[in-house]
Amino acid sequence: MSLSDKIFSAGVVGAGGAGFPSHIKAKSKVEFVIANGAECEPLIHKDYELMLHFGEEIVNGLEILLESTAAKKAYFGIKKKNSLAVESIKKHFTNGRIDLSLLGDFYPSGDEFELVYEATGRLIPPAGIPLDIGCVVNNVETLYNISRAEENKPVTNKFISINGAVKKPSSFFVPIGTPFSELIKVAGGTTINPFGIFVGGVMMGHLTFDLDEVVTKTTAGLIVLPAEHYLIKRKNQPEQNWHRIGKSACDQCSYCTEFCPRYLLGYQVEPHKVMRSLGFTKTGSAVWNQMAELCCSCGLCTLYACPEDLYPKEACDKAKIEMRSEGIKFIQQKPVKVHPIKEGRRVPLKQLVQKLKLQDYNVHTPFTNTKVEPGSVKILLKQHTGEACIPQVEVGSKVNEGELIASVPEGKLGANIHSSINGKIDEVTIEHIRITS
Ligand code: SF4
Ligand code: SF4
What we know:
Elements: H1 3-10, H2 22-27, E1 32-37, H3 46-53, H4 55-69, E2 73-79, H5 83-90, E3 98-103, E4 106-107, H6 112-120, E5 135-139, H7 140-150, E6 157-164, E7 170-175, H8 180-186, E8 195-199, E9 206-208, E10 221-226, H9 230-235, H10 239-249, H11 255-259, H12 261-265, H13 271-276, H14 285-288, H15 300-305, H16 312-326, H17 342-345, E11 347-348, H18 349-355, E12 376-380, E13 390-391, E14 398-399, E15 404-407, E16 417-418, E17 423-428, E18 432-436
Parallel strand pairs: 1-2, 1-5, 2-3, 6-10
Antiparallel strand pairs: 4-11, 6-7, 8-9, 8-10, 12-18, 13-15, 14-17, 15-16, 17-18
Helix pairs in contact: 1-7, 3-5, 4-5, 4-7
This protein binds iron/sulfur cluster (2 copies).
């Protein structure tokens, strides 16, 4: 079986973001393979812990991808400040084809456009992908899973960190489908009540109050914060308020654009112009919305740049949805040229943490090898880019950890799904499979 077939069978997806099926990247032929260990979301440290404790597996995943893609070189993107993780990784570089790409402690350094530029000096074409310029990028946990897939081990666990208002901030493996209530137990419980949970980070993640929500193949980490925390109050505003306030209060100062990392890289992303679409819904939105097409939703404009506490990132998200529904596609005409002031405008993570009022929670999340054994798991059939999987099991049947329970529809993009525990199938719907241990 080829590496790409093994990765497909094992159900590996990008663990750091949208869950793009990894077998597609393994099939491509490129010049450079890039490992993404940048991890820049405030308070999430799971990639750091994974690199510290599983450096060998991660580098092995990178090496086998180097072979399968026939790349001439690999770059390992990692923050210079994480010296222990750098050492843990570096000692496994044996083939002379991997170089470190040491990154500063800025937000967002893990954005693919940013990382590819830092590592190779190349700029991804507007609306393009790294493949367009001969690169593939994989998050370090994806590389860990690729290394296991080569040994025919499917993805059944997710490595996550839990931080914020919990008694024992930590990082650990957890069966996919585990409810958040179990993760909070592993972290010793919360230190406050009521609380909210940011899933995947305060900048790019979503807010939930639902402890029955479950871990998927892309859950990076949970951040528990008091319900009255500034970030929860901001995020929890009804959507119509974001846009109603923005319409009346935006003074077009353009700070949101001046700090936008995509704008500074040379892409035509101008959130202050997108804000205009809130006021000119009938006549201007088709024009102004286009300035959102290349936005990566990093959240910096809303949570750092805007002096009025408005929601330009959310205006960009809305603009992208409207453009898709109207069939409008923006094509950048100007050549991509890095802004001369880019370096001076980068946002240090420390400064961002202060602005977000998170200093009190900015602590390590050390790895613990506690075995998490939930009574039941709810495994979603769509945890990846592409089509939902088709169940291959029936209610009442017994399954073992690692057994295939749902597969990708014939000829479609997707990633197989395996049981994450030993147990009995309790429920099969079009959205999930529930297994009781
Ligand atoms: S920073 Fe805020 S006030 Fe200034 S243009 Fe952007 S959204 Fe408007
Ligand atoms: S969220 Fe804001 S700062 Fe980030 S890329 Fe989009 S427009 Fe730029």
